[in-house]
Amino acid sequence: MTTANGVEPESLESESAARERVGAVVGGSLSRGLDVRLEAAPAVENVKVGTFVTMQGRFNRFFGIVTDLRLDSSDPRAGLAVAFGGAALAEALSGATAYSTASVSPMLTTSAEGEAPQPARSLPPHFAPAHRASPGDVAAVFGGEDERHIWIGSPLDMEETRVCLNLEEFVKRSNGVFGKSGSGKSFLTRILLAGILQRGTAVNLVFDMHSEYGWQGTSESGYAPKGLKQLFGARVSVFTLDPDSSRRRGAATDVDARIGLDEIEPEDVGVLAATLGVTDLGAQACHTLKERWGDGWIAEFLARAPDELAELAEKIGENAATLGALRRRLRVLQRLGFVAERAEGGGVVREIMEHLADNRHVVIEFGRHGDNLTAYLLVANLITRRIHEEYRRRAERALATGGAQPTPLVITIEEAHRFLDPGVASRTIFGTIAREMRKYRVTLLVVDQRPAGIDDEVLSQIGTRIVCQLDNDRDVEAVLSGAPGSRELRGVIARLEAQRQSLMFGHALPMPVVVRTRAYDEDFYAAVGAAGANLSREDLFG
Amino acid sequence: MSSAPSAPAAAKFGEVIEASVERLTGQCHALYDAPPLGALVRAGDALFTLVDGVSTAALDPGRRVIARGAGLDSESDVYAEHPQLERLLRTDVTLTVVGHRDGGRIFRHLPPSPPRIHTFLYACSSGETAAFMEPADWTAILLSGALPAADDVIAAALRQAAPCFPDPRAFLMSACRLIAAQLPADAARLAAIMRRLPLDEPGV
Predict the structure, then answer these.
(1) Which of A267, A273, A279, A425 could pair with A431 in a Cys bridge, judged by C-beta atoms 3.0 to 4.6 Å apart?
(2) Which of A75, A77, A80, A94 should we substitute to test contact with B (largest number of B Cβ atoms within 10 Å)?
(3) Distance from the B41 Cα atom to the nearest Cα atom in chain A, whole angstroms
(4) Quick check: B2 pLDDT over 70?
(5) Looking at the 3D structure of chain B, how many domains does it have?
(6) A507 vs A343: which has the higher pLDDT
(7) Mutation target among A74, A80, A82, A99 for the B interface, most CBs of B within 10 A
(8) Residues spanned by the domain of B15
(9) Long-range CB contacts (< 8 A, 24+ apart) of A42-47?
(10) For residue A148, what pLDDT is reported?
């Protein structure tokens, strides 16, 4: 039988023997991927979309992932022959006349052991043997676990092998975790946040819509994964907007956060326009009111009796009906449990800023307000805008004086498409942060199930994308927009398992990889093993 | 020789009367004493051939055979009544050369030169057959040749060789896969060959 063994350089033979050979390169192109003819019967059924393979040329080793599989036949009439020929004929034909071909996207290449992999711009020769990647290959591409890399999961069918993510590169760009509900986004996000926390690569600010990151959350299986506060104790500060809920859940919180009406600015109302039902005219009227009354504009405005509005409208040159509608909408804000007439002390933003400056990570728990989109949008926008301003000031000052830059800040937001949809992305601070990238050392970690709802321009700035199962074609298209080889990756996403499996690609990873997320369990708690790991409420507060 | 001492030795049955590199004609020493179609036949010590045809006719082409059974009860009575028939008729075999032996090595392709006339022909022992027939690379010569009954010869050869292997079915399947690889665009021909093989019979 002719095999490609002759192509294999002798020095590599012994090493190749340890790997599982899957087949040989028989054709293809750089742009549409290589065709690898699968040889051994087990390989035909075990090689999956997303399997990480290496192809050994004479001088270079190539790394790629399987993006598609198909059944080919050298005789188009073979099917007919088998229909009349029985099982033995089928057995004789399979592997010879009828065979499987894997499409492999070549991603990286190395010319010698130990050399850092480069993007593949050449191809392995015909009949180059293809092997399932070994743990050594995975380590060569993704690096080992160290002070910059965290172990995030293992490649397909390689349970013992670790795929590591370079966190230092990760926090330099805005990133996204996408996937439909129940696909494991929260677990992945927890692992990322805990990794950032433990390695100290950045400080986190988490808008914890469903109260699952700070203190223990709930998973679909009923298991209660520990929150960051339980793992890292005093290094994490939990701000709660719903102290009752936090108490009921037995969660340890540090600060009961209250937002003063005087902290809300016309821009904040502008962002809320869609959810509150404020018209454009109403949003403009806010600016007029702010000019008239300053910081206390909402309180002043809401204090007016309805019959005073006509007079007020005349005075400031607005329409009385507009003001009436605006007043009704703004009362919604006043009724939010965490909104006070005036900010206490320096306001919650300053308090958060102090914690962040002290390298303490902040989780803002929404409790029952998590279901209230208005509350979530209001708080996330209001706090982020001010913190971003503060960061910008500090970064510019550091630039001017040559002083130390502030620690990078990663802001985690859920339901991101609400902030970043094409209609509001240009107005919300999140759109700005995503676009200006790391200029001021503030980046986003976007957690979302409807990436199609996110503004294209923002999406194109997402550095590292972690994609769990997505059903909707438009969502798949959206997360792949601007990614090289997106056509091939589409097939990979379509075949992700429903849970704990994700495709990761982008800035912090040398090549796309399908990963089974590591378990978020006792072993993980022990591994992130910060002082204060596994703390109970009593341990923390007596 | 790869045959074990206990294995039956190859049996001499005739000799070469016409020879080329690809084909031989042999004559049997005894009437009707020809190996069956597809049998592996060794010419001399070095050449391997497969029986692709067997024919029996009058020794002298000018003298036609005539019917002699009128008034006799059975065919064997014909030969008993006319003992000269054993001398007037002869059985020929045509052979396709499929390999040769050089020193200890077996090659499953054509030899450099044909055998001499009168080289003795031997029906191979089962040990020799097993040693030569796998791998079934010799099928290439028949598959690409012009022999009209090539597929029958291949099938007959495989059928006869199969019992020489401890796992006959495995031998047949590996040969079929090899044939499949040589006929990438002709699954129907493979199917035709395989229909002639005892693949689905019990015990095979």
Answers:
(1) A425
(2) A75
(3) 26
(4) no
(5) 1
(6) A507
(7) A74
(8) 11-195
(9) A44/A100, A46/A157, A47/A22, A47/A100, A47/A102, A47/A132
(10) 86
